[in-house]
Amino acid sequence: MTAVAVWSIVLTPGLKETIVPQADLQIKNAALAEKLSDESGRTTVKLTYINPAKIDDEEEEDEVDQNSPESEITTVLCSLTAGKIEQSACDLILESDEEYTFELIGKNTVYLYGNYIDQNANQPPYDSDMESDMSDEEAYNLDDVSSDVEVYPDELQGLEDDVNVRRFEELSDLGEDEPRAEESKPSKRPRDDAMDTEEQPAEKVSKKKKAKKQKGEDGKAIPVAVEEKAAEPKGEKEEEKKADKKEKKKQKAAEEKKGGASKELTGGVKIRDVKIGDGKTAKNGAKVSMRYIGRLQNGKIFDQNTKGKPFTFKLGTGDVIKGWDVGVAGMQIGGEREIIVPPAMGYGARKMSDIPANSTLIFEVKCLEIK
After folding, report:
1. For strand 336-341 and strand 72-81, is the pairing parallel, antiparallel, or unpaired?
2. 321 belongs to the catalytic site
3. Is 313 assigned a catalytic role?
4. pTM above 0.70, yes or no
5. Closest by Cα among 337, 332, 344, 342 to 370
6. Is the Cβ–Cβ distance between 272 and 260 less than 8 Å?
7. C-alpha span between 275 and 264 (Å, rounded)
8. Is 311 among the residues known to form the active site?
9. Nearest CA to 137 among 127, 152, 124?
10. Is 347 a catalytic residue?
């Protein structure tokens, strides 16, 4: 987070001051004016802002009264008392392009000051291995990612044209040399010869004897056709079973790749678990290590961390964009998830390098470690 410019405002008793910051704004301090109207009274600074849930739910805006009590939230920034507490340190960040209203309860004038800030320094997607001097092919190397999510460089070249061409996982077809489950062998029936021939039908016994006794004029035996049930060629039967097994494996892998159902979380962030991990669960305050690939809606990759040192941050503390704090929560070690971050939970109306203003961001992430 970097300070960009100084900001200040004078709050007068009895007057409401409404502001719409042009960039993210951090309020650092509140102080009483040099001249006091009430030398012993207390003055309270109140802040009113629009409920974020109402901002994100744009589809229902026409049905909801924006001036209703539910659509606005009022809180107290600080209280100052002449002769006792005449200034107070603050640490409040107001987001750009949102409306905020200040109001004083008391008789003394109050000065607020702070800085316009840039919160995007050292945040994904700008602190990854994209800035290293590796080649494009090396940048796509996922050697450190487990084999079930391996992607080859030549397969990533077409990702800009089709966002759903490949995910982290690679489906492996059943190879010729892969072990197959033992095929159940039909149980053998006891040989008829081992049984008492007197219990067999006389006609069958007669036919067998005839087959042995018939000979030609030259004394050579004449082949006699014995009625037998036509057996299926072994080669065709094995090929058919092999093809069925392949198809079932492909269907299963496709179902795993498809993952679970999509869920919508706070702020319109959408998640879909591709693979459920196990063990410890990521909660606010935990230190998590991640691999990720970030794309725009047109499929263009704008950032990624797929090899080397994983991206590590503290969850729920504002170290990353809001969409990550919301979307990563609940993951387990080894879990893989697709996170769709709307502009309001990403970079908003700001243009960030390769990310246009008001962009929806699509992340494919894998949780490697939770501390």
Report:
1. unpaired
2. yes
3. no
4. no
5. 332
6. yes
7. 18
8. no
9. 152
10. yes
pLDDT in tens, the chain (371 residues): 788 789 999 999 999 999 999 888 899 999 999 889 888 889 999 999 988 776 555 555 554 454 555 688 999 999 999 888 989 999 989 988 889 999 999 999 999 989 988 877 555 555 445 544 444 555 455 555 554 555 555 555 555 455 444 555 444 444 444 444 444 444 445 454 444 444 454 444 444 444 444 555 555 555 554 444 455 566 677 888 888 888 887 876 666 555 678 899 999 999 999 999 998 999 999 999 999 999 999 999 999 999 999 999 999 999 999 999 999 999 999 999 999 999 999 999 988 888 999 999 999 999 999 99
Q: Do residues 205 and 197 touch, judged by C-beta distance below 8 A?
A: yes
**Residues for the chain: how many in total?**
371
Q: Which of 100, 301, 347, 370 is catalytic?
A: 347
Of 323, 257, 336, the C-alpha closest to 290 is 336
Q: Cα–Cα distance between 67 and 60 in angstroms, integer?
A: 14
User: What is the C-alpha R_g of the chain?
Assistant: 36
The closest of 311, 266, 275 to 293, measured between CA atoms, is 311
State the amino acid at position 208 in one-letter form: K
One of 102, 140, 168, 302 is an active-site residue; which one? 302
